[in-house]
């Protein structure tokens, strides 16, 4: 609706899609009623109105084609990879290890759908079920669910194993994630997460941090052999993936090396930036072409 008046004036509209609203609605509210159908309708209208579509990953492009009816040639995939000039290793934050051998880390926003509760439960499984205690866990980030996961850690009796830093930026952020021995992506399987590109994938790979995660469709597409995947879609499975990395030095080194290789060769911001700019240049070129008046018949 925001684009319609401008389209009437001959402007070009680029739909830059970073989330799948219908799937996220189901995750947050648990049903497919009127509002879900409305989101599906407005998504289709956005595709139909758009001259070009930019999607956050290849799975979103598939959706734009299959349920949006958009021609693949009008869709560009631009991954939100970080600029490696801005994310790099620094001296690790002292004290995060707490005298233990490993640091399990989470970096990101803490919403209900982000699975930080799975991370907390995985820590409890490691300590109380699997009997492994030689690690500390760090949650870097903030969000609406922060207090509830703090309370969960206390309820499960693992508050001594988990540190919640809150929001960090700049050098402090880099120092904390540089201390991670293993990066955890606890986003659980659901309709939205299965097709999302997690920023944590790109960030962990940029620092060469081995990654434990659930085998979500888009996560596996991105990480491939660099990921160590939970054998079951629950916190016990996530704990098993973390434990395998902590107990197997070779696996940990292979995962780190594969992630660093992806960051150096595939997750390259300059390549993504070029695709992004080229989409705008295509839109401007078609706008300019449409503004040229056709030549009339010559006089005389």
Description of the structure:
The chain is α/β, with parallel strands linked by helices. The protein folds into two domains: 98 residues, Glycogen Phosphorylase B (Rossmann fold); 164 residues, Glycogen Phosphorylase B (Rossmann fold, 3-Layer(aba) Sandwich). The protein has twelve helices and nine strands. The strands form two sheets. The protein has a six-stranded parallel β-sheet with strand order 6-5-4-7-8-9, sandwiched between helices. Strands 1-2-3 form a three-stranded parallel β-sheet, with helices on both faces. Helix 8 links the parallel strand 7 and strand 8. Helix 8 crosses helix 11. It is globular. The C terminus is likely disordered.
| Lateral strand order in the biggest sheet | 6-5-4-7-8-9
Tally of individual domains: 2
Give the SSE order as H and E letters: HEHHEHEEHEHEHEHEHEHHH
Query: Which parts are unreliable, with pLDDT below 50 for 5 consecutive residues or more?
Result: 292-300
| Number of DSSP-assigned strands | 9
Number of helices: 12
Overall spatial form = globular
Distance between the ends: 49 Å
Strand content: 5-15%
**Helical amount:** 40-55%
Name given to the CATH homologous superfamily of the largest domain? Glycogen Phosphorylase B
Q: CATH first level of the largest domain: which class?
A: Alpha Beta
């Amino acid at each position: 609706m925001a684009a319609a008046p401008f389209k009437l004036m001959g402007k070009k509209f680029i739909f830059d899609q970073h989330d799948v609203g219908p799937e996220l609605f189901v995750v947050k509210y648990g049903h497919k009623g009127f509002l879900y159908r409305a989101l599906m309708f407005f998504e289709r209208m956005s595709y139909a109105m758009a001259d070009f579509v930019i999607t956050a990953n290849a799975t979103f492009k598939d959706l734009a084609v299959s349920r949006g009816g958009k021609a693949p040639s009008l869709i560009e995939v631009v991954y939100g990879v970080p600029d490696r000039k801005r994310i790099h290793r620094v001296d690790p934050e002292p004290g995060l290890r707490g005298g233990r051998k490993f640091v399990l880390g989470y970096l990101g926003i803490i919403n209900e759908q982000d699975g930080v509760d799975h991370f907390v439960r995985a820590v409890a499984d490691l300590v109380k079920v699997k009997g492994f205690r030689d690690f500390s866990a760090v949650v870097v980030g903030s969000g609406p669910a922060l207090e509830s996961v703090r309370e969960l850690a206390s309820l499960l009796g693992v508050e001594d194993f988990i540190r919640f830093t809150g929001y960090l930026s700049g050098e402090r952020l880099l120092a904390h994630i540089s201390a991670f021995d293993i990066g955890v992506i606890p986003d659980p399987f659901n309709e939205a997460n299965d097709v999302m590109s997690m920023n944590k994938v790109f960030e962990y790979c940029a620092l060469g941090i081995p990654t434990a995660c659930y085998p979500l469709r888009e996560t596996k597409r991105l990480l491939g052999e660099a990921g160590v995947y939970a054998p079951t879609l629950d916190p016990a499975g996530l704990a098993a993936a973390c434990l395998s990395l902590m107990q197997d030095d070779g696996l940990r080194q292979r995962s780190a090396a594969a992630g660093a290789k992806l960051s150096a060769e595939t997750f390259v911001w300059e390549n993504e930036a070029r695709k992004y700019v080229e989409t705008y240049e295509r839109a401007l070129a078609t706008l300019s072409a449409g503004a040229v008046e056709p030549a009339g018949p010559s006089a005389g």
